[in-house]
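Quarterly update, task 2.4: cytidine-5'-triphosphate-bound model.
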Amino acid sequence: MNGRKVLLIISGGISAYKSLSLIRLLRKSEITVRVILTKAGKEFVTPLSVSALCGGKVYCDLFDLDDEAEMGHIELSRSADLLVVAPATADLMAKMANGLANDLASTCLLATDKPVLLAPAMNVRMWENAANQRNIQTLINDGSSLVGPNEGDMACGEFGLGRMAEPEEILAAIKASFSSGCLAGKTALVTAGPTYEPIDPVRYLANRSSGKQGYAIAKSLADLGAEVTLVSGPVNITPPSEVHLLQVETAQEMLVAAQKSLPVDIAIFTAAVADWRIDKPNDQKIKKQIGEPIPEMEFIENPDILAIISALPKATRPKLVIGFAAETENLLENAANKLSTKNCDWIIANDISGDVMGGDHNQVALLMGDEPQ
Ligand code: CTP
């Protein structure tokens, strides 16, 4: 990302404070950032804090003689590779959709010849309002891209769609838009790690998966330009900053998270999902009774996430579904069997005999079914 330049426009919303973290993340990724702070934005973050973080001047006024002499608004709007509006308020987006230019931010947005990425942030009712939705559609038709908004609790006390995307997600979208990799513009889902299936509040069933392989694949996909959602069971690895991480514990939670991240172009299932779970986990810790028989547990089958996603109708099924076959014996035979029974497009036969689980090296064979349509 070294040498890339972003013009960040911070408009007036409570989530403006998150844009301070975004500035730090951008600089950490060696992306140069110039900042425009609107009049309303100044009500939420100060020019001093923005300036301290971006390491330069903060641009605020259209008619500031010094600013204009140093760098005119036209040059400001074009000197960056990408304009990012975070938070993008309903008001600023309405101005953009209607071509208004009555302050520095809206003027730069109208004058730019560079791509624009919007991170909307507003109350759920404002987001859903027909006028706002019309403006959003106009902006998309005009070529702007969106990251978020997300669903969740809002500063105003309501719940719903309208929270600004997290700084890490905005950074990922910025990187994806800069990426010239072969997967630029594609979306991907990766499942990784083990699942934990509860027995009681302190015990669970699990396996030795470290998640390393899934995390490395997610990072490679992101490096190639894909927008990646990583659905991860419990692991001890720092996730790559450019992926959207959904943390889960059980197979059932992993299925829900995977379904939620659809539609995607590519789905890769590296997770070592527990095949079975305890039918009725105990509410209280099961006590050991000396001399009594050991407790009996009834298992039921977990959903097969790979098979479920592979069986989706064409409209929602990822175009390329890749499964893994972790085998200690009969590697290719078992892998070929999984390729056909789970109906995925490719399967990666992962030889886990010996000391592979949790290690740094493994050997795989790639089995490809019919060419995905
Ligand atoms: N998988 C899944 N959901 C499950 C079980 C497995 O999505 N409930 C996926 C894994 O992520 C992997 C593939 O299915 O991509 C094969 O998983 P593996 O553990 O090798 O095989 P299983 O189907 O569990 O069969 P077995 O344990 O008998 O080898």
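Highlight for this quarter: The chain has two domains: 5-178, 187-367.
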